[in-house]
Amino acid sequence: MEKASSPPTRLARAISDQLLEVVAAAFKSPPLQSPTGEATGDGGSSGGGSTHSRKSSRRLMPAESPPGRSVARGSDGRGKNNNTHIRKSRSAQLKLDLDELSSGAALSRASSASLGLSFSFTGFTMPPEEVADPEPFSDDDIPEDIESGQPEKPKFRTELTLPIYLKFTDVTYKVIVKGITSSKEKDILNGITGSVNPGEVLALMGPSGSGKTTLLNLLSGRIMQSTVGGSITYNDQPYCKSLKSRIGFVTQDDVLFPHLTVRETLTYAARLRLPKVMTRQQKEKRAMDVIYELGLERCQDTMIGGSFVRGVSGGERKRVSIGNEIIINPSLLFLDEPTSGLDSTTALRIIQMLQDIAEAGKTVVTTIHQPSSRLFHRFDKLILLGKGSLLYFGKASEAMAYFSSIGCAPLVAMNPAEVLLDLANGNINDVSVPSELEDKVQIGNADAAGMASGKPSPAVVHEYLVEAYETRVAEDEKKKLAVPIPLDEELKLKVVSRKRQWGTSWWQQYCILFCRGIKERKHDYFSWLRITQVLSTAVVLGLLWWQSDGSTPGGLEDQTGLLFFIAVFWGFFPVFTAIFTFPQERAMLSKERAANMYRLSAYFLARTTSDLPLDLVLPVLFLLVVYFMAALRPDTACFFLSLLTVFLCIVAAQGLGLAIGAMLMDLKQATTLASVTVMTFMLAGGYFVEKVPVFVSWIRYMSFNYHTYKLLLKVQYQHFQQSINGIVLDSGVKEVGALIAMVFGYRFLAYISLRRMKMAGA
Length: 762
Fold this sequence. Notes:
By secondary structure, the chain is of the alpha/beta class. The longest helix has 29 residues, at about 635-665. The two termini are about 65 Å apart.
């Protein structure tokens, strides 16, 4: 705002008259409701004429002159209370402006406060329109500014939660690396010790490959192998499967269904995970509570989105993933790099949210790769890992002091997280070299750059840091962890006393998953691309076989070719659609099964049956076009029998695709195997070769193309033909039985493959 050093007397008089009118109107008007104290009288203009929300007004307060500050300046420091009534602060502000009207600064300030106008020498200009945030905030466009003086914190549930004290001592983990001739063990974690209490946030930090995610999986019980060593206790009790219902785990990748909305995603999670004693209405209310707790109310009806579907932002997607876990009110919450791929402000909002969750009495453990300085100072405890070894455990605020005490102080002002990551990598270019390390620099140093600069190699630095921690800190920490937690024995036993329970019955799980499957996949099944593909193929077939005559030998031969193509098309199409089912949903299945959301049998049956209504629509459209354009047998019963035959073929072929996908769980391998299998079934389908050699004749009986083709011939021509192209048209019972056996046989094979699939924590 420009300042007028000596405003004209006439202009000052006009302004003073206007101010007196505004003061009189202010004392007659009712108290203002806006928390910022903006003038909203009858004749007053609100800066730029725009209406702001309550949250936006809060964000603008620090940028404007607070009422308390103006009162203090006008009353020589006597008015120090910033919480005065809106009416009093406004009248004091206007009184101050009238008292100092002779000065150009006061004139400009008073005119702006009362009229919403900005005065200068030459006249006045309209003030710039207020905006909620002049700088880009984040990708999810939240109106509250986390960097303002008073950010709004979400109110997380404070209902009774079993406090769990997590302690781990000398945790080791090895994997067996299989070679061509022999196998050897590789150390992933070496003697990790630490603890975290309810109300605290523990950060696991270290460079890539240091073992952060492995340690997180061990602490959450998602890795249970014989190669795990050490002690991990929950309220001084070992891990048991009943703890799954008290643990929330947020994976690094946001594993969500892209075509479900935010509200649908959390509602289905609530209905599956919350206990049976809660009604459906209570579970849905809990989902809505989480939406408001996480600030997702603005996007609750927006689809999650994915690679090819536009949806919510990255920050909102991460909050939905967190909401999926906190919806059960867990005692322990584990998160794997929750800030990856987010901008710094959104990442700060996520970490502050974790603080709020911890303050509600929960224990929070998170891995983080490279936090900013603001993020780093929000953690309560820190574990620094390097090459699977423990370099530091303690309060995050004391980490820099510890490394300075062992001679590794930063030489320049740096983000503490960057200093720690450099040390974990063995890089001490910007860090002072301890005297002990200087003595170890020798000619035989493996690092050539280290020899040239006279600095120790990363391996030597790593060895020094591990040794320093073990000699100075490790033993004291182990002694502290050896002391039993001061909890009642009843609370300790609650960790292991509860039996494994499902949130809902098997039938309810099936119904919920069935409805979720239809909602998720209806977009793919009824996409314009798929509908166009089916209808265009049907129209082309109808034109090529337009009004064919099956009563003549030539017309009969043409129609048999059409029927075989129908059998091949509806055998080929579903196989390659079903192949992608389980490989694409493997991450979701693994995550939800690890959380005990449902039984595998309920998921499998719901997943396979929810496709059936969708699979029936396109074949009906296809046959309605082809059947009558090609002038096949004009009989209603024949049409529906043909439709039933095609439907059996689709379900059998779909079962084959499910089995191949579940057995291999690799799209490239599954596609290759399916191509060979479908081509073999097509060649053995009875159209190309009439007399198949005996030693390969068994293949045709495994081919759904053969049985479908034979049934279609029977429906169309049994009334006047006994055999066509060497195929005897009998009753068709064998063919129907064979297709039904394939429907259930292939699916059973797929289920067994899923049951044997290794999933974390399952």
